[in-house]
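Structure request: Coiled-coil domain-containing protein 57, Micrurus carvalhoi.
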Amino acid sequence: EKESIIEKLERELEELKTNWDSQVAQISKETVSKNLQIQAQQEVVVKMKAEVVALNQDIERYKQQLSLAIEKEESLERAKLQGELEWQQRCENAERNQYHKSEALIQNLSTAREQAIAALKEKEEKLCGLEVLLSTVTLERDQACQQLRLLKVKQGTVGVSEHFPPADIQTLQQQNNILRSVIAEMRKEMETLNIQAASFDDIKMKIQNTGITNSAVVYFLLVIKLI
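Returned structure:
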């Protein structure tokens, strides 16, 4: 009976040992599996931390780029505003200078017109004097020729040259031709002065309508022509 009990106990002990070994093996297996999972999770965590660091670096870089872009945009905006102010100032200065030049040009044209009218009046007076002188010389020449013809008729050709030398008649003829040439030249000059005086008002009107730029060219051409 004791032996049966011992055998029974030995079998139970063997079964317990077998079960224990089986449980230990299972626990070891599960432990290894969990360790592998933990290791995998740790690797994932390390990888995610690295990605977070990289993302933070990217975010910081983007912040710097955005800050630089904002600063550059503000700088460009300030430069644009400054440029607009400078351009507006230049336009105002140019407009003011154009106005002063136009006023000065109109004044110069008015002065030139008055001078042209004065010169025209002076030439008219000289022309009247020359016309009177021409009439006198022509009359003297005609009278001399008439008397010469009468003497030729009454006395013949003998002794006529003593009363009216041919040189005197030729001198009168030359004076007559010179006076006619001078009068013709003065008439041309007066026509030119009339045209210039009449064109001054047109030029001033063009200055007021088209501005200093185009009128300045007309003015300088006119000055050159007068010179």
